[in-house]
Amino acid sequence: MVPELVRMSGITKRFGGVLACAGVDFTVRAGEVHALLGENGAGKSTLMNILSGVHTDYEGDVAVHGEVVRLRDPADAQRHGIATIHQELDLVPQLTVAENLVLGREPRTRARLLDRRAMQRLAREEFAALGIDLDPNRPVGSLRVGEQQLVEIAKALSLHAQVLVMDEPTAALADAEVSRLFEIIDGLRRRGVGIVYISHRMEEIEVIADRATVLRNGAVAGSLTPAPEHRPQLISLMVGRSVEAMFARPKTQKPAAEARPLLRVAGLTVRPRTPRPGRAEPDGIDLSVDAGEIVGLAGLMGSGRTELLETLFGAGPAARVTGAVTLDGLPYAPKSPRAALARGVGLVPEDRRGSALTLPHQVDHSMVLSALSRLTTLGFVRRTRERASVLDMMRRLAVKAGAPTAPVGSLSGGNQQKVVLARQLMTVPRLLLLDEPTRGVDVGAKAEIYQILHRLADEGMGILLASSELPELLGVCDRVVVLRRGAVAADLDPADVTGDDVLAAAMTAPGGTDR
């Protein structure tokens, strides 16, 4: 019989009058991947925070290796062999990769000084085990989000944990990196490590998980063996209703004469004055977006998707830019985000917490931040108009918040993402740039965001959407442009290709050869 590493029995946790967990039973066995599913707000994070020693005031029992324990803090949980990779990155940007890896447990020399050689050696060993190539001396703040996620994974694995909690570990990873992570997880499973895997990506759960437990409204809604044939049942358990078509959109094919050119990019090349390691700047990119069209950007990590969007939003580094870009038939070369907004271009960045939101700020203040010029007269904000605009946007996007004055940090991930989207929509853009718009968002909120995008496109907005989720690109977009090392590798019709076709194009250089 496979031994239980962790047994949580009757876990109940309240925050004031809110019942976050209600009598939850949950176990983790040696050598298994146990998926924990549920919409944002279902109780997953609360349950795992109890297991990780973050919350100590709860009802019920937590047993580790058969012994009931009361984990006092995260360090105590680590001493009991429990490590957590959080969804939101927990790294210090100013420190190096190696320093982050050993933070709080730095190796010392006999003279009690920091042993930097040992730190770097440990970092290289952990990265070699993960099959990734990162310089231990690079500041973490200079890394892309996906690279920072890999540092988090290496940091957790370096603790030699027996129970590893992974909260959305692939949210910022492209498919090739996900495959590598799954190889690592298989190796951990063979060594008897128990893994709690939290993800909103059903395809991942079906590939990697041995069991799946679904939480809804703080209680266990059911448990199943993950498999494609069980997906509708799992989704139904998560959202309490049937989700028939995640990507449903009425396919109103417009005659070619009705398509209005919006964005045209020809030979766009960016040469930064100070090159930044890890970036793939646009290198001769040709693409177009028509009004009412959703164009997807696919590619592996380092393909240049984010760099292209930043360039189009005027948020890239100082650089020499060549090529031609037009918007509505007029030359377009924004020098700053302010200039891009003035031309009707909005951007939803991939890292909502790091680049788009200040969590203590109110929902209404966060929404109107980019559109204050539309709400002011002689420098004074018209509060009545501001409130009406916020309430209208919350209704349109179905933002679930206690009040417009609620802190953004009190919202679920999906609702935080809607606030970021609302901020851009309040500027009334003609072209909307989206970078990983459903990262860390549950299946129900994803469906809502897809419907919002479809509605915006039907209203005539052009949308350029970068995503590492192939089903999302194929299901939502009218076309998919595949990037590789800053260049266009393919321009595909989702109706004619599969995810394997997109991945093959992402791994093949323009001209048809792998380089």
TrEMBL record:
It comes from the Bacteria. SUPFAM superfamilies: P-loop containing nucleoside triphosphate hydrolases (SSF52540). Residues 6-242, 263-510 form the ABC transporter domain. Its main location: membrane. Keywords: ATP-binding, Cell membrane, Membrane, Nucleotide-binding, Repeat, Translocase, Transport. InterPro entries: AAA+_ATPase, ABC_carbohydrate_import_ATPase, ABC_transporter-like_ATP-bd, ABC_transporter-like_CS, P-loop_NTPase. GO terms for molecular function: ATP binding; ATP hydrolysis activity. SMART domains: AAA (SM00382). This is Sugar ABC transporter ATP-binding protein. It comes from Catellatospora coxensis.
